[in-house]
Amino acid sequence: LALLKPTDLAAQLGVSRAWLYEAAKTGRIPSIRIGGEYGPLRFVPEDIQRWIDDARAEWVPGRSTRPTWPSEDVVPRGARTRPRARR
Prior knowledge:
It contains three helices and two strands. With 87 residues, it is mainly α. Strand 1 (32-33) and strand 2 form a beta hairpin. Helix 1 crosses helix 2. It is flat, with a radius of gyration of 18 Å.
């Protein structure tokens, strides 16, 4: 069984390794840890293909895959969280 390493899969998907590790940690993408919780992260090619196929099957032309505006509880980077004090 040939497992994919994070660097190889990140290159194939066109994403960063950081995104891949976070997606695996949160369960967004199927992954396994060899030897337990702290073992090296690997990906089963058949699981990844099924994950891609499922994503494609759910896609509807013209419908965004995520909201175009962030939710109210998300603050954009660099945005002020408090109004400026008057001088």
